[in-house]
């Protein structure tokens, strides 16, 4: 009977999820945005990533800080942010943040590098009507 083992594993995963949520909240409170972005991306939380981007942009020199944080993300994290911002861009409340991230990616990534992103073609096709 493996029911007890499965329940323990589910409990451990739930506890780990709660710990990560708390860590994310602490990172945002401490304004450690790069780690907060990385954690929100790893948790696959587009709305939380958006909230981090909004918090960065509210800071003094927010655009500069956004560029610094986005530039320091790994390629897979940038790909995830790209897929998130396609959805953000379709909503007028979030389009400014999406456009700020797009601008940052276009400024700091070489065209050849951007073409290597998975899903770049569909992302561009989705962004064009709203941009």
From TrEMBL:
UniProt keyword annotation of Repeat present: yes
Gene Ontology cellular-component annotations: 90S preribosome; small-subunit processome
Keywords per UniProt: Nucleus, Repeat, WD repeat
Domain U3 small nucleolar RNA-associated protein 13 C-terminal span(s) in chain numbering: 21-131
Source organism, top-level taxon: Eukaryota
Pfam families named among the record's database cross-references: Utp13
GO biological process: endonucleolytic cleavage in 5'-ETS of tricistronic rRNA transcript (SSU-rRNA, 5.8S rRNA, LSU-rRNA); endonucleolytic cleavage to generate mature 5'-end of SSU-rRNA from (SSU-rRNA, 5.8S rRNA, LSU-rRNA)
Subcellular location(s) of the protein: Nucleus, Nucleolus
Main location: nucleus
Name of this chain's protein: TBL3 protein
Organism: Ciccaba nigrolineata
Gene name of this polypeptide: Tbl3
């Amino acid at each position: 009977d493996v029911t007890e083992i499965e329940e323990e594993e589910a409990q451990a995963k739930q506890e780990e999820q709660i710990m990560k949520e708390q860590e994310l909240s602490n990172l945002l409170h401490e304004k450690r945005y790069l780690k907060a972005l990385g954690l929100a991306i790893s948790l696959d939380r587009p709305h939380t990533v958006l909230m981090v981007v909004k918090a960065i942009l509210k800071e003094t020199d927010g655009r500069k800080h956004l560029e610094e944080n986005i530039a320091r993300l790994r390629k897979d994290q940038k790909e995830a942010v790209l897929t998130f911002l396609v959805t953000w861009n379709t909503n007028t409340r979030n389009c400014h943040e999406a456009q700020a991230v797009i601008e940052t990616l276009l400024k700091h990534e070489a065209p050849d590098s951007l073409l290597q992103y998975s899903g770049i073609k569909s992302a561009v096709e989705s962004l064009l009507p709203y941009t």
